[in-house]
Amino acid sequence: MDKKEIIDKIKNEKVGVLGTDTLYGLVALASSRASVEYVYDLKKRDRQKPFIVLISKFDDIFSFGVEIDGGIKSFLKKIWPGKISVILPCDDDKLFYIHRGKKSIAFRVPDKKSLRDIIDETGPIVAPSANLEGSLPAKNIKEAKEYFGSKIDFYNDEGTLSSKPSTLIKVEDNKINVLRRGEVNIKKNVN
After folding, report:
1. Where are the beta strands (DSSP E) in 2-115?
2. For 73-117, what is each residue's pLDDT tens digit?
3. Is the pTM for the entire model greater than 0.70?
4. Is position 185 within any domain?
5. Which helix (H) or strand (E) holds 171?
């Protein structure tokens, strides 16, 4: 599947499986409430657990009403793009369908340029791992199809992807709290 076709499908609120910088993701346009809710249905995911939002560049966080200080800003610019997802405050009630009442959203600028190029055209996407909640992430399209079959709109085969998930951190008071150890090890403070 070529890049333009993937971009068109995502922009038209289609849901599909796409390789990210870590694993295959079940991708949907973050600005489409219906598509995001459909991903919850497909994954049979706990609706209290927010998805990570993939963005193409640092400045995309501001379209979610995120406000951060200069120290965190320079820290994010050092670690992104990379396999580190960062939870940042977001208390916009219109984005409840993304933050699920947690008043924060995890963002990542993927390490994979071709994916950033797609997101640059579509806008931010949710991309949780391609599996049912509690099951192993799909490492290839065959495994993804076993989970989702014809319930989704497209599959983009990128061979076998086998990686740890992204490292998930939350920054509070300039201290880094590692919530999930993943592909990247990280030190404990912002400076």
Report:
1. 16-19, 24-29, 52-54, 84-89, 104-108
2. 999 999 999 999 999 999 899 999 999 999 999 999 999 999 999
3. yes
4. no
5. strand 167-172
Give how many domains the chain has, as a whole number: 1
Q: Residue 52 falls within a domain, yes or no?
A: yes
Residue among 122, 70, 72, 128 at smallest CA distance from 98: 128
- CATH code: domain of residue 23: 3.90.870.10
Instruction: Encode 117-145: b = buried (16+ Cβ within 10 Å), e = exposed.
Output: ebbeebbbbbbbbbbeeeeebbbbbebbb
Element of type H or E holding 133: none
- Nearest-angstrom CA–CA distance, 191 and 187: 9
Residues 6+ apart with CB under 8 A from 117: 3, 56
The answer to whether residue 188 is domain-embedded is no
Indicate if the alpha-carbon torsion angle 146, 148, 154, 156 is positive or negative.
Answer: negative
- Those residues whose C-beta lies under 8 Å from the C-beta of residue 81, and which sit 6 or more positions away, are 21, 109, 110, 111, 112, 113, 116
Q: Which domain holds residue 131?
A: 3-180
Amino acid at 66: V
For residues 155 and 158, give the distance between their C-alpha atoms in angstroms, rounded to a whole number. 9
pLDDT tens-digit profile of 126-157? 999 999 999 999 999 999 999 999 999 999 99
**46: buried, middle or exposed (CB in 10 Å: 19+, 13-18, 0-12)?**
exposed
Per the domain annotation, does 30 fall within a domain? yes
